[in-house]
Amino acid sequence: MAAFSTSAEEAITRTIAVQPDGPHDHLSESDLLEYFEIERTVEELKKGDYKRVALQFPDELLHDSVPIFRLLKARLGAQPELYVLADTSYGSCCVDEVAAQHVDADAMVHYGHACMSQTSRLPVIYVFGRKEIDADDCARRLAEYINAAQRHIETVLLKLEVAYAHAAGEIVSRLQRILTSTKILYSHLPLKAEPVKASATAGPSSEPLEKSSTVDEILYVGGESLSLTNLLMTHSSCEVYSYNPADKSTKIESGKTNKLLMRRYVAVQKARDADVFGILVGTLGVASYLPLISHLRAILNRAQKKSYTISVGKLNPAKLANFLEIECFVIVACPENSVIEAKEFLRPIVTPYELEIALHAKPDWTGRYVLDFNEVLSAEHTNGDTSMNGKDDGSETVDSDQPVFSLMTGKYRHAKRYGGEPQDDATTPSSDSAVTIRNQNTALSVLSDSASAQFLQTRTFRGLETRIGEDAPSVLEQGRSGIARGYADDHRSGDASPGNS
């Protein structure tokens, strides 16, 4: 039994070894000052005259949080008050404004990798870190790919992982000297961001650089990451060449694009077969997330689909498996946390854009992919691209009795309809309603338009029986007392068994 149980004291006193992994490990104080830009952070905090500041660290940087806190505190003094945030509510790349509100912070400092999504409540100072990179080798290797192309390339877009953004200017200048006849596009990342008040009708605040210009090829500097995956999906028509500064290797990444899009197309087909959807709240800090949730509810209601809004924090298969009545999930999160490979999940998880494609009566996917909130909500997207939007999807005119062919099962299916037009006679139940026993006195009630209630009727196990009045009450026994670290057992009968707690 010793292998399966331990004392309560050991669980409290156990220590967990942290194995940091990264180029910033074991840095001296002077190196920490440079790598995490302590002086710039102090200057920004003093300039803003903030009273309470939250320092957000991802898991891989928690071991640096204490020395960074001390360095900042030594230079700032008593004001502002600093609070270290860990275990983010959602993805660590997003600004965790929810946790910051617990300490009533009026500003945040975000450390490590960031998705650069617009925030809605607090100003944010970004500290990406300054990873080492050989700018000359990077520019030379990437230029070799461009020169080896069999056609003239007029415009190239440069994208960098945020930890290498400090070397962007040097890389651009070296590339321009080598590629004299090619235009290099790059937009600098902001080191500080102010909150943006989102509205239900607001479109994108500014047009992305890659959208405003015709881009022939894309150069990416960084390792394998969600940023690279999203770049491949949203720019499937361009060749993407990557350079990894860690091992100084280059390769063509575009070969993965078709496989990525094919997997997402399968998820779209699964969503077309679903009648009950769960809207997963994957962020509470990205601007426009509330208008997007309202938009999703509206298009699902027009398609006569049932929807539930769920907030479960960080996703895992065990959490979502509790909602068996839901046939497909739609996640509202930042672009880097929106595409989820649902191999381990019971139900498919799609993005808002994929949902709009699935709800279209005759989907025609050209390969264009959208992950940005504002693009999904913009008037240009919802009105201009009628082949892939959810407003003119034709689902309202589809006959509810007409079967729909499923590409996943290879059979015809009859879609369930929720939230239809109200009946003229309020006492007449709808066709989707069911009669069920309400209590032990065999009283009858009509189920409402509830997907969960209908799903419950199909289950063989519906919970433990109450058996009120059928079983005699048990005798109360003295249980344990004290705290979890060391309970005091009842030894009156000479037995060390604790009894019922």
Report on this model:
Component of the 2-(3-amino-3-carboxypropyl)histidine synthase complex composed of DPH1, DPH2, DPH3 and a NADH-dependent reductase, predominantly CBR1. Pathway: Protein modification; peptidyl-diphthamide biosynthesis. Pfam families: Diphthamide_syn. This protein is an alpha/beta fold and 501 residues long. Among the domains are: 29-127, Rossmann fold; 135-188 and 198-252, Diphthamide synthesis DPH1/DPH2 domain 2 (Rossmann fold, 3-Layer(aba) Sandwich); 259-396, 3-Layer(aba) Sandwich (Rossmann fold). It has 16 helices and 20 strands. Strands 2-1-3-4-7 form a five-stranded mixed sheet. A five-stranded mixed sheet has the order 6-5-8-9-10, with helices on one face. It has a four-stranded parallel sheet with strand order 12-11-13-14. Helix 6 packs across helix 7. The radius of gyration is 28 Å and the shape is globular. It starts with 7 loop residues before the first helix and ends in a 13-residue tail after the last strand.
Key phrases:
five-stranded mixed beta sheet; globular; 501 residues; Rossmann fold; alpha/beta; 20 strands; disordered C terminus; 16 helices
CATH level-1 class of the domain at 259-396: Alpha Beta
Helix content, binned percent: 25-40%
CATH superfamily of the domain at 259-396: Diphthamide synthesis DPH1/DPH2 domain 3
Spans of at least 5 consecutive residues with low confidence: 1-5, 199-206, 379-398, 421-433, 492-501
Let me know the average pLDDT.
78
Give the termini distance in whole angstroms. 22 Å
CATH architecture classification name of the domain at 259-396: 3-Layer(aba) Sandwich
Strand order of the largest sheet: 2-1-3-4-7
Overall, the morphology is: globular
Strand content is 15-25%
> How many β strands by DSSP?
20
- Supply the number of helical segments: 16
Keywords: Cytoplasm, Iron, Iron-sulfur, Metal-binding
Pfam families: Diphthamide_syn
Subcellular location: Cytoplasm
Region (Disordered): 381-403, 470-501
